[in-house]
């Protein structure tokens, strides 16, 4: 009886899980220079979809073992990659481009997964990665702008869930979404977009939204500036520092602080032009149900705005739900600044396990969406903006911001470590992605 039950369980697992592809041949079947070129192309692509440097380095070394027995040295920085394979293959590349496209991140992760088991030739991996890096967003500018507005509404329902503010979130979200689209055809405008968006949104919120919504200025504009917030940079920087990646972590933190300063300057400039909003009595908050509705709204918005892979909406929704519900439950027992630890800690094993199911996207797609939903930058933006516009704020408030960012980074590190330790010791079927590289 036990054998029949075990056989049924094995058949069920094999039916739903992704089966690992097989290696094409033993190591040293390809030229060292070609292997180095493949590692360079995959590595720089992983950096462009905002992967921490220590994960990029470990993944490239894992891939290298499938293709060569020669010593491999890898140096990974946020914008620089250096590869040495044996004494022949040398590659150096730089990139200052970052993409928020989830379908691009998923495709690059698929290629890296194939390479990690030697199931693709270096030439094919290079060609597929080049195509992936040139992928266009699935949705056009108008649809993407609408997706951003939907995301802004969802974040507003998380940060400041009031009925009166919803029209303001929609209006300002459309404005910021349209401004964000300017960075695609005109990349040279990207450095000034955060300041421009923050200034315009602050002016519009002061003139048309804050009084109508009967809400404070920062509570209205923080959710709609989510695309400009440096939350991912600050979190990845803290994650790299926690992993002893001092150069990468420090440079990302400095970049995040600089982006934050540009946003704060834009808010201060907007307040100077439009004038200050008179003190407001906070609007009546929605009920506890608003969090669960917000999860659905954020998932739909990010699916469109971040150009998620086809068929991944339910997985994005589930990953975001794990992160936000875990954060909300933790908030009942610990300070809000530390609740992100639980959200991040739960997201990592969920994404890694869910990625083994046939219909799921790569784990990186789910984790990026979940980390966007945790919005660590919103806290720092509100604190710094309040100080810049003359609000009453102290060192303790800025300390809470730092704690929120570090808690998410620490939750990610511990979640990853615990999952890998348990996963390596238990004999369950692991499975890998089984992508089709087109």
TrEMBL record:
Q: What is this protein called?
A: Threonine/serine exporter-like N-terminal domain-containing protein
In which organism is this protein found? Mycolicibacterium sarraceniae
Could you tell me which residues belong to the region Disordered? 1-30
GO MF terms held by the record = transmembrane transporter activity
Which controlled-vocabulary keywords does the entry list?
A: Membrane, Transmembrane, Transmembrane helix
Threonine/serine exporter-like N-terminal domain sequence ranges: 41-273
List the transmembrane segments: 139-159, 165-182, 189-210, 216-241, 253-274, 286-306, 313-330, 336-355, 362-381, 393-419
Q: Which family does it belong to?
A: Belongs to the ThrE exporter (TC 2.A.79) family.
Show the ranges annotated as biased composition (Basic residues).
1-18
PANTHER family xrefs: PHEROMONE-REGULATED MEMBRANE PROTEIN 10
Family matches, as InterPro entries: ThrE-like_N, ThrE/Ser_Exporter
């Amino acid at each position: 009886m036990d054998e029949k039950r075990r056989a049924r369980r094995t058949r069920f697992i094999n039916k739903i899980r992704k089966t690992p592809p097989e290696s094409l041949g033993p190591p040293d079947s390809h030229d060292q220079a070609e292997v180095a070129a493949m590692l360079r192309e995959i590595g720089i692509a992983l950096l462009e979809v905002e992967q921490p440097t220590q994960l990029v380095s470990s993944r490239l070394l894992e891939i290298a073992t499938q293709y060569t027995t020669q010593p491999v040295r890898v140096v990974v920085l946020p914008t620089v990659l250096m590869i040495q394979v044996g004494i022949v293959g040398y590659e150096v590349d730089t990139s200052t481009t970052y993409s928020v496209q989830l379908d691009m991140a998923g495709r690059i992760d698929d290629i890296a997964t194939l390479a990690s088991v030697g199931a693709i030739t270096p030439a094919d991996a290079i060609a597929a990665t080049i195509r992936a890096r040139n992928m266009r967003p699935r949705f056009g500018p108008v649809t993407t702008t609408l997706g951003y507005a939907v995301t802004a509404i969802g974040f507003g329902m998380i940060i400041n869930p009031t009925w009166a503010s919803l029209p303001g979130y929609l209006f300002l979200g459309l404005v910021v979404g349209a401004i964000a689209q300017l960075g695609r055809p005109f990349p040279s405008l990207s450095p000034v977009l955060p300041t421009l968006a923050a200034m315009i949104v602050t002016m519009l919120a002061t003139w048309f939204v804050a009084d109508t919504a009967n809400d404070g200025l920062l509570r209205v504009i923080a959710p709609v500036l989510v695309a400009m917030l440096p939350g991912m940079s600050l979190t990845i920087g803290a994650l790299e520092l926690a992993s002893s990646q001092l150069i990468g972590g420090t440079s990302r933190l400095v970049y995040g602080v600089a982006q934050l300063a540009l946003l704060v300057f834009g808010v201060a400039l907007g307040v100077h032009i439009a004038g200050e909003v008179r003190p407001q009595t906070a609007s009546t908050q929605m009920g506890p149900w608003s969090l669960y509705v917000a999860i659905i709204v954020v998932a739909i918005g990010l699916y469109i705005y971040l150009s998620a892979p086809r068929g991944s909406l339910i997985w994005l929704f589930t990953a975001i739900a794990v992160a936000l519900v875990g954060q909300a439950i933790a908030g009942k027992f610990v300070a809000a600044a530390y609740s992100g630890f639980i959200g991040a800690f739960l997201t990592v094993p969920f994404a890694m396990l869910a990625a083994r199911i046939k219909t799921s996207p790569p784990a990186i797609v789910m984790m990026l969406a979940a980390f966007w939903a945790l919005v660590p930058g919103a806290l720092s933006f509100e604190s710094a903006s309040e100080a810049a516009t003359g609000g009453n704020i102290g060192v303790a408030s800025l300390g809470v911001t730092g704690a929120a960012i570090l808690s998410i980074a620490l939750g990610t590190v511990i979640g990853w470590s615990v999952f890998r330790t348990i996963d390596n010791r238990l004999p369950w079927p692991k499975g890998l992605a089984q992508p089709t590289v087109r």
